[in-house]
């Protein structure tokens, strides 16, 4: 049974002062699936995502990866386990280049004494890897992989952030509202990228407000309400308006 | 659109294609300036040298005079390297001058009051500078106080400590030359033709090259920029901003301590009253050198150009016989123009 699940969480709580952001959340993610997480504003879904990506440490509860309990004291710990996150504000450094952003925090050094003694970065190797990753994601040609990220459009920046996650995420990629700031065409491309990444066997957690996007790519839908999981929907069995109804409380969920 | 790449990839939507953006010549120029922030200060410096050279002739445009500018900006140049590191992280260090002077006093007092070998005194002075920087670093990175306030406090504390500890006494040049000449090491020089290069000037150039290398070719350097650019983004991308800030402030303190050693070479004596304006002068050099006070943009080479611009203006105007106030007036204009230009380029190129 458990081998079905790549990542699980049980009874996670987090309070900020008197505000309860997570009230015993359960969560599970299957291998190679796209799991959408939906919920109204303030339902606590971003707190859940932060807990899963190591950005916050929950007050109590248990998180497992591959059946083994894990601790995520910081984002570096999560990344070391192959869990990558694309934050809504992308977490890019605007004045640094595409390559530098993709490799930020895990730069490659030159081989030999240049790297080990003089700590010299291997620009060529990083440029090559960054170019390859962007090409594989269908982000087409890069005229200048060293151009500052601030000279790119919103969609291109999203592409860089996703490429960074895809380049290093070996088990789970978390995408927080990846289409929120994009136009129709750009959104379509992001959805395509999500499918491509899933086809590589990587599990994806997708946080989104856009029901059409959720229903297009999700294998299952985790509905978050009032600081906990209300239910998990199968997009084949329900309609987007059902999902919205559950999420807003217009329709209550009875366990079958 | 690039046909070959189009064929390699299935998705045919127009998302995130990094095809060459069409820019006019103005756009191209701005983009180039944007990505090479030291180019404008270099142009200003070159223009200043040409203009003063034409007006003043060989009196100004001689190897001797031009290398004299280098000697005069040496102290500010070295400390500006430290200042650049801090400003790149979107901080500011008002205590650089005080740390420099106090380090030189520590080196002098250790040698003359406690009778330590001067080499040991120098190490103690350098350690003192590093420690001052580290204290600021801890207050900024861990206690999370604003750099302006932290270094404003450090400035007063270190400066007062400097006067108290030195009892406001100067150690005379002749005594140093007799008993501990190594303290004046950076005052020695080599002459090539009419050009005079002090060891201090050479040290400044080497130090700038080393720090430039660290900033551009190592992961640490890229993290300095990332932390200055957007600390939250850097942290989320896996940069340990705390360590970056600690090393930046400690490194800045170390460079200031080193500047204290070169200061003895420049003055000959150890004087607790020296370098009172160094903090402002270095901030001026850094800003004119094209480094953004908002962090994440700039270079030590630019700061060196900035210091040289100030040095060239002061010497050129003095030789032309103008009131020295004109120098300050011009530098003031230059600062505002530099910052305004930075804003303009950034907005236009982004």
What are its keywords?
heterodimer, A: 256 residues, alpha/beta, Rossmann fold, four-stranded antiparallel beta sheet, B: mainly alpha, ABC transporter involved in vitamin B12 uptake, BtuC, two-stranded antiparallel sheet, globular
How would you describe this structure to a colleague?
The complex is a heterodimer of chains A (256) and B (350). By secondary structure, chain A is an alpha/beta fold. Chain A has a domain at 2-82 and 169-248: 3-Layer(aba) Sandwich (Rossmann fold). Chain A is 33% helix and 25% strand. Chain A contains 9 helices and 10 strands. Chain A has helices at 45-53, 75-80, 98-102, 113-116, 123-136, 154-168, 184-199, 211-217, 240-248, and strands spanning 5-16, 19-30, 34-39, 60-65, 68-70, 83-86, 172-176, 203-207, 220-225, 228-233. In chain A, strands 6-7-8-3-9-10 form a 6-stranded mixed sheet, sandwiched between helices. In chain A, helix 6 (154-168) runs parallel beside helix 7. The longest helix of chain A is centred in the C-terminal third of the chain and has 16 residues, at 184-199. Chain A is globular and about 65 Å long. Chain B is mainly α and 350 residues long. Chain B has a single domain, classed as Orthogonal Bundle (ABC transporter involved in vitamin B12 uptake, BtuC), CATH 1.10.3470. Chain B has helices spanning 3-8, 25-35, 39-56, 63-88, 96-112, 118-141, 147-166, 173-179, 199-217, 219-229, 231-236, 241-267, 278-288, 300-319, 325-349, and strands at 189-192, 195-198. A two-stranded antiparallel ribbon of chain B has the order 1-2. The longest helix of chain B has 27 residues, at 241-267. Chain B is globular, with a radius of gyration of 22 Å. The two termini of chain B are 22 Å apart. Residues 1-17 of chain B have low confidence and may be disordered. The chains are: A alpha/beta (256), B mainly alpha (350). At the A-B interface, helix 2, helix 3, helix 6 and helix 7 of A face helix 1, helix 2, helix 10 and helix 11 of B.
């Amino acid at each position: 049974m458990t081998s079905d699940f790549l990542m699980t969480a049980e009874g996670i709580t987090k309070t900020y002062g008197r505000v309860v952001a997570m009230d015993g959340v359960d969560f599970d993610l299957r291998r190679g699936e796209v799991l959408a997480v939906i919920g109204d504003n303030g339902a606590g879904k971003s707190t859940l995502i932060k807990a899963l990506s190591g950005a916050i440490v929950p007050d109590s509860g248990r998180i497992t990866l591959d059946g083994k309990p894990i601790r995520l004291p910081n984002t570096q710990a999560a990344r070391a386990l192959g869990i990558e996150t694309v934050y809504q504000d992308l977490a890019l450094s605007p004045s640094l280049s595409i390559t530098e952003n993709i490799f930020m925090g895990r730069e490659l050094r030159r081989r030999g004494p240049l790297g080990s003694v003089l700590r010299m970065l291997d620009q060529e190797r990083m440029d090559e890897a960054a170019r390859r990753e962007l090409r594989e994601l269908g982000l087409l040609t890069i005229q200048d992989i060293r151009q500052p990220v601030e000279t790119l459009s919103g969609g291109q920046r999203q592409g860089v952030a996703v490429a960074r996650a895809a380049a290093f995420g070996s088990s789970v990629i978390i995408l927080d509202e990846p289409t929120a700031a994009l136009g129709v065409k750009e959104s379509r491309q992001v959805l395509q990228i999500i499918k491509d990444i899933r086809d590589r066997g990587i599990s994806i957690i997708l946080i989104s407000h856009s029901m059409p996007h959720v229903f297009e790519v999700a294998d299952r839908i985790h509905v978050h309400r009032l600081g906990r999981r209300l239910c998990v929907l199968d997009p084949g069995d329900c309609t987007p308006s059902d999902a919205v109804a559950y999420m807003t409380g217009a329709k209550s969920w009875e366990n079958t | 659109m690039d046909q070959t790449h189009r064929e390699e990839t299935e998705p045919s939507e127009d998302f995130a294609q990094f095809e060459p953006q069409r820019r006019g010549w103005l756009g191209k120029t701005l983009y180039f300036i944007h990505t090479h922030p030291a180019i404008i200060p270099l142009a200003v410096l070159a223009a200043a040298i040409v203009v003063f050279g034409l007006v003043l002739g060989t009196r100004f445009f001689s190897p001797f005079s031009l290398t004299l500018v280098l000697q005069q900006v040496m102290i500010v140049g070295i400390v500006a390297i430290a200042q650049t590191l801090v400003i790149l992280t979107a901080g500011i260090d008002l205590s650089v001058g005080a740390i420099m002077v106090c380090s030189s006093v520590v080196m002098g007092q250790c040698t003359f009051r406690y009778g330590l070998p001067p080499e040991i005194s120098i190490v103690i002075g350098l350690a003192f500078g590093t420690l001052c920087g580290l204290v600021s670093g801890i207050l900024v990175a861990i206690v999370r106080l604003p750099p302006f306030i932290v270094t404003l406090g450090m400035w007063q504390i270190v400066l007062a400590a400097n006067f108290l500890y030195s009892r406001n006494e100067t150690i005379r040049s002749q005594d140093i030359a007799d008993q501990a000449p190594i303290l004046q090491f950076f005052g020695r020089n080599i002459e090539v033709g009419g050009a005079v290069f002090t060891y201090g000037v050479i040290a400044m150039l080497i130090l700038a090259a080393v720090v430039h290398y660290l900033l551009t070719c190592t992961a640490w350097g890229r993290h300095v920029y990332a932390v200055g650019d957007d600390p939250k983004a850097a942290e989320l991308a896996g940069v340990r901003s705390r360590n970056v800030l600690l090393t930046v402030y400690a490194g800045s303190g170390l460079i200031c301590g080193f500047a204290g050693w070169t200061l003895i070479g420049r003055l000959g004596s150890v004087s607790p009253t020296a370098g009172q304006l160094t903090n402002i002068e270095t901030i001026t050099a850094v800003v004119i050198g094209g480094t953004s006070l908002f962090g994440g943009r700039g270079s030590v080479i630019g700061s060196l150009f900035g210091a040289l611009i100030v040095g060239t203006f002061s010497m050129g105007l003095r030789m032309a016989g103008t009131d020295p106030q004109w120098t300050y007036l011009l530098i003031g204009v230059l600062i505002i123009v530099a910052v305004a230009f930075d804003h303009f380029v950034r907005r236009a190129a982004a």
